[in-house]
């Protein structure tokens, strides 16, 4: 037990450092983008469309990569697969650490787009699978909530640091911390492989006692191309459990709303209330502090009496209310006040992941989390295609009617759909263990 706690503590430190490095640049990136593309302006359609295009391309890449990464981690270990995204994430940060001129921005834009296809969401996906390897079913919702709380605490520290650092220093610190995260993970984090059979000779899409294919000379290695889960494999896994498939629908609409928020909210606040880097940081800091307290202290107390299904629905309902308040903001203080709802909106992601985890067997946690991450990435492809044009249109003088927050209101409607679907999820664990989805993954 003590060994497991030590392993989890190293995982939490790794996640903290990685999230810190990725989030410390968020308050500054909008100003950097605007300065590089439309200097001296508070409105820039080019910036909105480029950000939306980048988000869609990243979503396409991650939709393909997440199931593969999760699948590979079931065979070769979580630590081995964590190394790739954590290392790649350093490269674009280092570019803007050197300079924020237009040419450097475009270099960052291209590198960020390419590396994020592997990095975006994969660290969280693998961390969830690592936790599932080391935590029992009954404690998983609390453990996932604590992991989200660690991420929120890192979010707070990163936002606070960004509030007081210059833009150039922000990217330099992000680069150093991301390098430190990789070194720490490689030195201290213990490997976690669900199936300790000779994984290097085990086919990735087949489970069971006769996984190792043998010939007269012994085990035969399977080529990597045969280990990539097909679309049919993913669809079959989604159909393996009604709760799993319903959770995937919730994940899709929730991620569609999150993707829409990412592609629109900062540009909306800048155009509507002239927000800048410091105001973004203040807003994110408030949300982060509230989320950290909720996930580390409140959520563990509520999991047992309410269950992860009800917590998911509560989180989605108040996320919808939060989006509505932002869409009709009549003063600059309204977005600040609305962030208090983060106390309950943060229940949704860990609760959803806990429900998914309980529908998969011990040797399928990477597949299950990767599958849901792939569904979320698919939503991230679609989100900017919908919400970026809507945001640009309703912030321009050509809007069909005056409603600057119309795209945010559409996000609220999307969250309401996710909330309604969440009420239909039956959270009882499957009775067949690994069998249902393993049948889908055979080759």
Describe the model.
Helix content is 74%, strand content 1%. It is globular, with a radius of gyration of 21 Å. The chain has helices at 2-23, 26-37, 45-76, 78-88, 90-98, 102-119, 122-134, 140-164, 167-188, 231-239, 242-273, 277-327, 333-338, 342-345, 348-358, 365-394, 406-422, 435-438; strands at residues 214-215, 218-219. Mean pLDDT is 79; it is low at 196-226 and 431-438. Helix 4 runs antiparallel to helix 9 (167-188), helix 7 packs antiparallel against helix 16 and helix 12 crosses helix 17 (406-422). It has 443 residues and is an all-alpha fold. A two-stranded antiparallel ribbon has the order 1-2. Strand 1 and strand 2 form a beta hairpin.
The low-confidence runs, each spanning 5 or more residues with pLDDT under 50, are 196-226, 431-438
Biggest β-sheet: count, sense, barrel?
Answer: 2 strands, antiparallel
Q: What is the helix tally? A: 18
Please provide the count of β strands: 2
Strand and helix order: HHHHHHHHHEEHHHHHHHHH
Radius of gyration: 21 Å
Shape: globular
Q: Strands of the largest sheet, in order across it?
A: 1-2
Helix amount: over 70%
Strand content: under 5%
Class inferred from helices and paired strands: mainly alpha
Question: What is the arithmetic mean of pLDDT?
Answer: 79
How many angstroms separate the termini? 37 Å
